[in-house]
């Protein structure tokens, strides 16, 4: 492939990696990882609520990696409560999984920046054989993509298998019991998924830059003179 086309491909990959780093940094600081509703089971059972009456006992919850907010509904109106995972919920949540998610988010952000720098260096500089060449670009993209996949797997298991929303909703609740009514992953979680796909796309762009297409060959290579030409 011509050098100019390779520069364009590496520039596009570098911009995408840098955008992923910014997106991951923004996602880490938000509380839009999970949104949902929680049902005050104790209050609903006390009045035998059903149908539209259940709406008075359904509160809201949203949280991220560091903090969140829930609205407590037990028939007397909503009462908002803000919380933070560190150190408030550290004894309630699966701390090892939660810390691992934060760690892999940091690694994803760092390697996205590293990949962006090396993509730009390959586009405008003189690449070295290993660290700045195709092997290094594959390595940074592969590590970032794997980190994104691990983040989604670990956080999904924390929410779905360990029932993180219920543990948060029942935090410091003595006589009332809350149950998850509905929950869905929010914008920040899907940003990590998009970043993982982008790094996978970058790996394809690196491979695409190494292909030799017929239209990229020199025209002079097809015009040869010799005895074979005289036969026609």
Automatic annotation (TrEMBL):
<feature type="transmembrane region" description="Helical">
    <location>
        <begin position="97"/>
        <end position="123"/>
    </location>
</feature>
<dbReference type="GO" id="GO:0007605">
    <property type="term" value="P:sensory perception of sound"/>
</dbReference>
<dbReference type="InterPro" id="IPR026748">
    <property type="entry name" value="Clarin"/>
</dbReference>
<keyword id="KW-1133">Transmembrane helix</keyword>
<feature type="transmembrane region" description="Helical">
    <location>
        <begin position="135"/>
        <end position="155"/>
    </location>
</feature>
<keyword id="KW-0812">Transmembrane</keyword>
<dbReference type="GO" id="GO:0050957">
    <property type="term" value="P:equilibrioception"/>
</dbReference>
<comment type="similarity">
    <text>Belongs to the clarin family.</text>
</comment>
<feature type="transmembrane region" description="Helical">
    <location>
        <begin position="189"/>
        <end position="209"/>
    </location>
</feature>
<keyword id="KW-0472">Membrane</keyword>
<dbReference type="Pfam" id="PF25807">
    <property type="entry name" value="Clarin-2"/>
</dbReference>
<protein>
    <submittedName>
        <fullName>CLRN1 protein</fullName>
    </submittedName>
</protein>
<dbReference type="GO" id="GO:0016020">
    <property type="term" value="C:membrane"/>
</dbReference>
């Amino acid at each position: 492939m011509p050098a100019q086309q390779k520069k364009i491909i590496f520039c596009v990959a570098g911009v995408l990696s840098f955008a992923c780093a910014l997106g991951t940094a923004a996602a880490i600081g938000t509380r839009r990882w999970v949104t949902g509703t929680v049902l005050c089971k104790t209050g609903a059972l006390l009045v035998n609520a059903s149908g539209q009456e259940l709406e008075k006992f359904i509160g809201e919850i949203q949280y991220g990696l560091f903090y969140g907010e829930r609205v407590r509904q037990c028939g007397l109106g909503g009462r908002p409560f803000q919380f933070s995972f560190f150190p408030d919920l550290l004894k309630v949540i699966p701390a090892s999984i939660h810390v691992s998610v934060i760690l892999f988010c940091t690694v994803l952000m760092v390697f996205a920046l590293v990949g962006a720098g090396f993509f730009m260096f390959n586009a405008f500089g003189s690449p070295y054989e290993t660290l700045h060449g195709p092997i290094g670009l594959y390595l940074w993209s592969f590590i970032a993509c794997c980190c994104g996949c691990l983040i989604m797997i670990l956080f999904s298991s924390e929410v779905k298998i360990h029932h993180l929303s219920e543990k948060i909703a029942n935090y410091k609740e003595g006589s009332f019991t809350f149950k998850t009514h509905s929950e869905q992953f929010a914008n920040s979680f899907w940003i990590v998924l998009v970043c993982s796909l982008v790094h996978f796309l970058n790996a394809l762009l690196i491979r695409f830059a190494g292909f030799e297409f017929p239209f990229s060959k020199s025209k002079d290579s097809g015009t040869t003179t010799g005895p074979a030409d005289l036969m026609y």
